[in-house]
Amino acid sequence: MLTKWTVERSYTLYQDRFLKHRVDRCRTRQGVIVDPYHVIECKDWINVVAVTPDLEILLVREYRHGGGFIATGLPSGTFETGDDALSCATRELREETGALSDHWFATASVFVNPAVMTNRVHSFLALNVELGGETKFDDSEEIETLAVPVADVFADLLDGRLIVQGLHLASLYAAAAHVRGSQDPLLVPFRDAIEHAYRR
Q1: In what order do the strands lie in the sheet with 144-149?
Q2: CA 117 distance to own-chain centroid
Q3: 8 Å CB contact between 44 and 79
Q4: What are the respective helix, strand and coil percentages of the chain, to the nearest 5?
Q5: Rounded CA gap, 48 and 174, in Å?
């Protein structure tokens, strides 16, 4: 029978406003001692698949220092104090792209890497997004927004022409799975555009 490990000792090795690096001494059900076991505590974050009335997905381009390159991906961001997932998604979409939407669908909530990290990523689909609002970047951010036809995004993903980080890919396919299984008439145009990409 599977059980949780017992944490016999725990201390913080490092902490700042972005993360906490925790070190645990654990005992398994069989009595095996696992020491040290490193855990990174981070904030939850959100990814948004934002679709315009013209059936274009809003993608953002920005420098990602860990990878050392200009990455293309989805509007995303971390929770702030008092946030729930939807309020975080609404704020981050507006701040990064200037876009607003009144039609939101939660499509997935998954752990980032539960072996060593505590946080989750929450995925949303936003329909009929309207551009034109004011962006609000962090001091270190430079972001370009692209509006790319839905069919092109999924065709480029399938053909390997568009490379995005793994959890953005998961969010895109969670949105596709959501619309393909839904009877909501609002989602039909988006579903048809994705099906067109699969038929190319």
Answers
A1: 69-73, 56-64, 144-149
A2: 15
A3: yes
A4: 25, 40, 35
A5: 11
Which tens digit of pLDDT belongs to each residue from 94-141?
999 999 999 999 999 999 999 999 999 999 999 999 998 888 888 888
CA 70 centroid distance within chain: 17
Q: Give the sign of the dihedral formed by CA 61, CA 65, CA 69, CA 74.
A: negative
Distance (Å, rounded) from C-alpha 49 to C-alpha 125?
5
Distance CA 172, CA 3 (A): 33
Angle at 50 between CA 44 and CA 54, to 5 degrees: 180
Given a contact cutoff of 8 angstroms between Cβ atoms, the answer to whether 180 and 193 are in contact is no
94 close to 100: Cβ distance less than 8 angstroms: yes
The whole-number pLDDT of residue 132 equals 84
Q: What is the number of helices (H) and of strands (E) in the chain? A: 4, 10
Burial class (CB within 10 angstroms; exposed 0-12, middle 13-18, buried 19+) of 76: buried
Instruction: Find where tokens 């939807």 sit.
Output: 86
Upper half-sphere CA count for residue 75 (Cβ side, 13 Å): 30
| Whole-number Å distance between alpha carbons of 22 and 37 | 8
Residues in CB range of 33: below 8 A, 6 or more apart = 25, 26, 27
Length of the chain: 200
